[in-house]
Amino acid sequence: MRYELYYWPEIQGRGEFVRLALEEAGARYVDVARHPGGENAMIALMNGRRVARPPFAPPFLKAGRRVIAQTASILLYLGPRHGLVPPGEAGRLWVHQLQLTLADLVAEAHDTHHPISGSLYYEDQRREAKRRSASFVDERIPKFLGYFEDLLARSGATYLAGRSVSYADLSLFQVMAGLRYAFPKAMARHARSQRRVAALHDRVAARPRIAAYLASPRRIAFNEQGIFRHYPALDR
Amino acid sequence: MRYELYYWPEIQGRGEFVRLALEEAGARYVDVARHPGGENAMIALMNGRRVARPPFAPPFLKAGRRVIAQTASILLYLGPRHGLVPPGEAGRLWVHQLQLTLADLVAEAHDTHHPISGSLYYEDQRREAKRRSASFVDERIPKFLGYFEDLLARSGATYLAGRSVSYADLSLFQVMAGLRYAFPKAMARHARSQRRVAALHDRVAARPRIAAYLASPRRIAFNEQGIFRHYPALDR
């Protein structure tokens, strides 16, 4: 089966967490909206009457006749099918719990540049963005990354759920990459207390399929349309 | 087995989505932090070294030796054990996807009164809260509730996943109750386009175990410490 991934074609965004899982799995997939006519097909699928259970928003994945939305839910589906979670319910739930914690961090990272409304430009909420970013950088980044650092210290394991990579590890890699892009000064300042998380980032980046993906044109570069945006005024 | 729920004792908050599921299931549980010494036990469990897989934040559920955190993950665990999801993977994923969409709405509802930082008082971010609430009330409430309204219109079913109540229905009930508490003017204005969602709210509220729960002292009243807060300045 060839999966169809539907997501905005010009950003990594939330779709990137799914792309990384598909790439690590070596799964066959089409990134539909990056092909001619694909973005319209995506919107038609969301708004049309053909799907009994329509997604609220991208990303969503078509797997045969099934349409699955919400990043964490897509990963919940893909995980056991592609060896991206430990066998058994306890491991599956643990990885999912970590993914949901990362999703909370991602939503907060987004709101640093859009604290008032997603339908306004950053330029229209600059002052509020600066205030929100200060709290995010000083309090939230250390709290979230400190949690993952502590998990790795407790378990002493290679990855968050043991010896094998899980989709939560791929997502933590992406979060680290995104935070370093958006907040280079802050991340340099926090680096000493995030050594294990940084090592995990490097370990994921060096995995053959991930390394090949990152070097390919399939990996969209970070930019100022996505979730992780580099606005120097917000870094500190 | 008797579950142990760990959550802040003075608010409904995210813990309420778990409470509603446990109540509808008729499950045996202790709301630990509402008992003497319970809040300290909760914090000790979170920060201590005894748990191999500690939660990032409440709510979390102890089920035997297992500790499960993240609201949606707890519901993912409880759902199939207590008949709160349809049988089969497709139905389970669908209900989870809806729950994650509701979780996004809940996070946005929280940020209406805390758009800058969770560690500042509302009073210190009033102006920003007013701006964020305007967008939430005018754009986000209709978008989210319109989505659920449309789902109910498409399927014509009693509940979101068919004839039987699921944990997503319980959560949608809670979201409706919360939004009506926090934004009575806005919700009255939107009421005509939310009739099916309102009917679902009433259907859930009338279920015998939920009705008994809502009338009991176990149900904490809405208040200005929780996620859904009534600040007249933010309603419109």
Concise synopsis of the structure shown:
Two copies of one chain form a homodimer. The termini of chain A are far apart. The radius of gyration of chain A is 18 Å and the shape is globular.
Please explain how this structure is put together.
The structure is a homodimer of 236-residue chains. Chain A is globular, with a radius of gyration of 18 Å. The mean pLDDT of chain A is 97. In chain A, 54% of the residues lie in helices and 6% in strands. In chain A, helix 4 runs antiparallel to helix 5 and helix 6 packs across helix 8. Chain A contains nine helices and four strands. Chain A has a four-stranded mixed sheet, sandwiched between helices. With 236 residues, the first copy, chain A, is an alpha+beta fold. The first copy, chain A, has two domains: 79 residues, Glutaredoxin (3-Layer(aba) Sandwich); 119 residues, Up-down Bundle (Glutathione S-transferase Yfyf (Class Pi), Chain A, domain 2), CATH 1.20.1050.10. The longest helix of chain A is centred in the middle third of the chain and has 30 residues. At the A-B interface, strand 4, helix 3, helix 4 and helix 5 of A face strand 4, helix 3, helix 4 and helix 5 of B.
